[in-house]
Write the structure tokens for this entry.
Amino acid sequence: MLHRIGDNSEMARKARSEPPKTGLYYAREARGMSRSELVRRSGVSKQQFSRLENGLIRLRLDHLKPFANVLGYSPEQILLWGRYPGTGGDHPQGEVLPASEQIPELAGRSEAEYSTLKKRKEGRHVDRIKSEFWAFPPSFVSKQLQTSVKQLLVIEVEGDSMVPTVMPGERVLVDTKHQTPSPDGVYAIRDPFDNVIIRRLQLLRAAQPSQVKIILDNPKHAAEQVALGELEIVGKALCTLKLL
């Protein structure tokens, strides 16, 4: 039986005044941050913020850039909240993925202030990771990536040193079981400041002792050469995660 709602202008006005909440609202709620604090830290006016959070303006990535560093989410995550891996809408509230299916993402330098970040011990280093995890179909991990979930790590690229191969803000999926620069290719390495960065590595086998050439794909940046024993490799880059 089909029930019809009669003409009710008051109900119609109420429905129009309550548009669906946007990803900006859910990202702010996930961080436990008040509206006034986010307005203050982002520099966006209270009126503009209200329009964006309440869906009165159609969100674009450039709208979300002022909030990204403050909230610790990328503009893409906020825009596609619930449909983008690493956002709270991937799983019903209270449901937790088993550890065997969780892929951690390292926190960026600007996110170190968040108390919600967890820690990941790797050898003598302790890295901070985000509170949300990534998940991929098991068949994709085993057949396409030819690895296991427990070996994987997601790293967000900062800076333009690997342009055009990898753009700033894109994420790279890294296999941590590959910690030798063979074959040559793109790897995650630890820099002198203990940051994990993405670089192209070429093993100079004829050199004694063995040397590694660290190549930055952006021609504006010069390559460097270090002894193999001085280089700490976190893992081999398998693919990038980006919006088209």
